[in-house]
Design a protein that fits this description.
Blueprint (H helix, E strand, L loop, with lengths): L11 H7 L8 H21 L9 E5 L5 E3 H14 L5 E6 L6 E2 L9 E9 L10 E9 L9 H4 L8 E7 L3 E6 L4 E7 L4 E6 L10 E3 L10 H10 L11 E2 L5 H11 L1 E5 L10 E2 H14 L3 E3 L16 E2 L1 E4 L1 H36 L1
Parallel strand pairs: 3-5, 11-12, 11-13
Antiparallel strand pairs: 1-2, 3-4, 5-6, 6-7, 7-8, 8-9, 9-10, 13-17, 14-16, 15-17
Helix pairs in contact: 1-2, 2-3, 5-8
Length: 358
């Protein structure tokens, strides 16, 4: 008996093939599947991490000044090795590598760029908390030349695909190509990602806000007021939400995507540019959340509109349900107006004192 189409198993390979753009020549489709294959390899290691020599520090420090974990290094290497020779990429950029990752000259140059954070949340590896991989794909700027920095330093609005892999109780890959957000769960028996969440949307009303309250004293007054509002302690229009914070970006983002909410990692007095990386973390997740009906901002503008100036540029992040993120922009705009008025008053006071002295 042939099952109805609604009961058919949809693998990620089949889904990608059936939903590829009409103008696609196959390279883009195969590149997405290359990422899925890398995710399987990383998932295999993470699921056996306690049994293998992949936990703990690898003895190095990455470009961010953070201790590299052994699994970090493995994830970075496996993604590179699965993508460096296929002829689909003109270059890559990794959160773990200081410089642009070039395609070896003996391999053909492709038309796409892959940027990725091989293992986000790696500080949680040793305590068995969910971690993840974040990735995004651009078209190269100049198809005639081999990969250059200009091919990578593009705003998130130019991305043609973005996604993440969550390694937790199950391994899940979520991605978008600008036609909705789709989730696939890895079946360990089949060794294949199967479609489990089609056309994902951020639900309303939102249920959670995610922020590290221990940094409260490092935030600007506008951010402090916003977080009090999120917690229902300031304002008559405060939402009714619970606070949940894992400290692993992919895990926090995934929960809020499924349940509704906002993730907040603002600028701090000692980190005025924020902590999260624009290219490898913020911009890919911004693409995903917008495709799911949400919004991502640095507090003043859409993260997808920010033109990166550096491979490892950082940015403050407010990401989740649109009305919650736009509320953050309101608080920060009010803070900016108050600061402008104070500066103007100080300038007038100095002018008056100067005139009196004369």
């Amino acid at each position: 008996m042939i099952r109805p189409r609604t009961e058919q198993i949809v693998t990620i390979e089949r889904f990608i093939l059936e939903h590829q753009p009409q103008e696609a020549k196959g390279d883009f489709t195969n590149l997405l599947y290359d990422v899925a294959l890398a995710a399987k390899a990383i998932a295999h290691k993470t699921n056996r991490a306690g049994l293998l020599d992949v936990l703990g520090r690898a003895g190095g420090v990455n470009v961010q000044g953070e201790d590299q974990q052994k699994l970090d290094v493995y994830a970075d290497t496996i993604i590179y090795r699965l993508c460096d020779h296929t002829g689909r990429l003109c270059c890559m950029a990794s959160e773990e590598q200081e410089e642009l990752v070039e395609i070896p000259p003996e391999y053909a140059k492709g038309n796409y760029v892959l940027v990725y954070d091989p293992l986000d949340g790696s500080s949680n590896i040793d305590v068995n908390v969910s971690i993840g991989t974040i990735f995004a794909i651009f078209r190269c700027v100049d198809w005639e030349k081999r990969g250059r920095l200009q091919d990578v330093l593009q705003p998130g609005r130019n991305m043609v695909a973005a996604g993440y892999v969550l390694y937790g109780a199950s391994t899940m890959l979520v991605y978008t190509t600008g036609a909705g957000v789709h989730g696939f769960t890895l079946d360990p028996e089949l060794g294949e990602f199967l479609l489990t969440n089609d056309n994902m949307r951020v639900p309303e009303p939102p249920r959670y806000y995610s922020v590290n309250h221990s940094y409260f004293g490092r935030w600007s007054p506008g951010v402090q007021q916003y977080v009090r509002w999120l917690g229902g302690r300031d304002g008559n229009d405060a939402p009714l939400m619970s606070q949940r914070y894992i400290g692993s970006l992919v895990a926090d983002f995934h929960r809020n995507l499924l349940r509704g909410g906002v993730f907040v990692y603002p600028a701090e007095t000692n980190k005025p540019q924020g902590k999260l990386r624009l290219l490898y973390e913020a911009a890919p997740l911004a693409f995903l959340i917008e495709e799911a009906g949400g919004y991502a901002s640095d507090g003043y503008r859409s993260i997808r509109d920010i033109e990166p100036l550096d491979l490892h540029q950082r940015v403050p992040v407010f990401i989740g349900n649109r009305q919650l993120v736009e509320k953050a922009e309101e608080f920060l705009a009010q803070e900016a107006r108050v600061q402008a008025e104070m500066s103007e008053n100080e300038a007038l006071t100095e002018e008056v004192l100067s005139e009196e002295a004369l």
